[in-house]
Design a protein that fits this description.
homodimer; about 140 residues; Arc Repressor Mutant, subunit A; 7 helices; elongated; DNA-binding
Chain lengths: ~140, ~140
DNA sequence: GTAATAAAAGACAAAAAGGTCTTTTATTAT
DNA sequence: ATAATAAAAGACCTTTTTGTCTTTTATTAC
């Protein structure tokens, strides 16, 4: 479903939401170490997210990555779509060039249902709310 | 979710179920042309399926690929697991090394729920039955 | 204004996935 | 037996994805 890059990015954003804030910015090193992902590789992903204003950053001492108020309001879906492209959620699971409810493949409707459910999770809540849920329900990232 | 290889393989098996039989074996060329997939690449996938007894083949004139009675009884799931490995259906959607109902990631339950849905389609019916359904409901492969 | 810090940028490298082409082997129809 | 056929096998090649390392740029604390 999601590329490794995308998984790293999602987790990093959630990590930022859970452990950082505008006053306590986090460096790539910390995030990478905590999430167990390759540091320099993650750095590029964060840069990409930063360029797309899904996360914020400042350079220099006491600099790092964080989520500003606007960032916290966006959905994880944007992170996914920034990294894996917007088609992730609607390409045919059998790889057919055309596959729709009018012209479905054998897996179409189940796949659709599947994706709707996932979309609900990554889009239904703001990052902020998702982070809250992660804390409350003691989920792992 | 599924690799390209896996998609090609699934479609090819369904194509065999729909268009061939023990008396009318199909060559890679026909299958590849019809499904619009790279011929030699598909050939290897079919070889792999054949080795694993998910499809049958004979060499030489009037030879080709087909499904014997046993093959028709198996599920698409086996095809998937032969090509993409058995873990496809239970690796964490966020890529976490441990992610279970006891120790879930934020997407765990939704991912589980809908993977079950997909499993139902690829495992709930024999190839034969699935092919029947494709015919009846005029689905695309 | 200088040194230290941390992200940004960019050049490579390694691994995996996807794809092509050629040779070999088995089968069958003649 | 032989020629023709089609899968099996294997050697490569290309592209994409993933990962590493180095240099540059911006910021801040002193």
């Amino acid at each position: 479903m999601f590329s490794k890059s995308c998984k790293y990015a999602m987790r990093a954003v959630l990590y930022l939401a859970l452990n950082g804030n505008e006053e306590k910015k986090l460096g790539v090193k910390e995030i990478a170490d905590e999430l167990n992902v390759p540091k320099h590789f993650l750095a590029k992903l964060l840069q990409q997210l930063s360029k797309n204003q899904l996360i914020s950053s400042t350079k220099g001492p006491s600099g790092g990555f964080y989520l500003n108020d606007q960032n916290k309001e966006t959905s994880l879906r944007k992170v996914v779509e920034t990294i894996d492209g917007p088609e992730v959620f609607n390409t045919c699971i059998l790889g057919l060039p055309v596959c729709s409810s009018e012209n479905p493949c054998p897996l179409h409707f189940k796949a659709l249902e599947y994706r709707e459910g996932l979309l609900e999770v990554v889009e239904g809540k703001k990052i902020e709310e998702l982070a809250r849920r992660i804390k409350d329900e003691n989920l792992t990232i």
